[in-house]
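lol so apparently i was supposed to do this last week
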Amino acid sequence: MNASNSTNPELENKELFKSGHTACAGCGVSVGLRHILRAAGPDTIVVNATGCVEIFTSAYPRSAWSVPYIHCLFENTAPVAAGVVETLRAQGNDHTKVIVIAGDGASYDIGFGHLSGMLERGHDALYISYDNEAYMNTGVQRSGATPWKANTTTSQVGSVFKGKMQYKKPLTEIVAAHSIPYAATSTSAHYIDLQNKVKKALSIKGPKFLNVLMTCVPGWGTEPSLSMQYLKDAVDTHVWPVYEIENGFLKMNLKPEKKPVETYLKGQKRFKHLTPEDIAQIQKMVDEKWDSLLWKEKCDQERLAALKK
Ligand SMILES: Cc1ncc(C[n+]2csc(CCOP(=O)(O)OP(=O)(O)O)c2C)c(N)n1
Ligand SMILES: [Mg+2]
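anyway here it is w/ magnesium ion bound
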């Protein structure tokens, strides 16, 4: 393990997340981790919640991490990160970055209260939620991040219920409502956006949050070779808007010309039962959300410009 994944020595030095881990073929999460660590650099400590990432990167005695790595309980990643960062700062170390890597199960649900506490107390850490939209490691159970109507093992398609009955929790907005300096969304396919956001977040003092959509081949029921394409389609259909909220001011980072939601939904086994009415309803919800974000951006950017005068 930790073997070279490149014959280019320059690139090799930058690859802090190594190949040889045991992620599934086409895992969108492993791609995202590689970009996150490239952007963060070697002076970083990673605190990781239980989930797929822990399993595929750290099977003892191996490790895919070239930076210090702490695995902790599902629920308490944010407090562990807070403890690490406060210890570093008490020791006079004001440079080492502390990054939480936690799945949607950990972030939207089980560690949600502790994430809120970390934000409210103002610890100088970057919390990254990798959102693959279900509890994948334990066999695809629905989470607060699972989209409406998606088929999971605990939101099945049967004669009465047709997938998840509830809507996806708006975690990025809930986090931003804590008045933290920086909250943003991205995907592992939009790697320049992702790397820029990691760098920007780490340059800001205080609690920061990134919500990054990452594909899961077995959980979404998709072709491994299409993982990045699905993430691009999620953004191009406006299903996953890419934006940042800096000091309370929202800015849309990508405004692609809208493709119909079918472009993204088709070919995913978790959505294969959707009716034309379901798809029309999803389109309506996506359009409404997009419009509300554009309005918010307009108001926020005008307010910001007025403040700068
Ligand atoms: C308190 C607690 N509840 C349940 C589990 C079992 N468990 C381990 S990993 C996991 C799923 C993690 O889901 P997520 O955070 O979305 O990460 P993913 O596996 O999708 O990468 C679950 C339910 C646990 N370890 N601890
Ligand atoms: Mg998950």
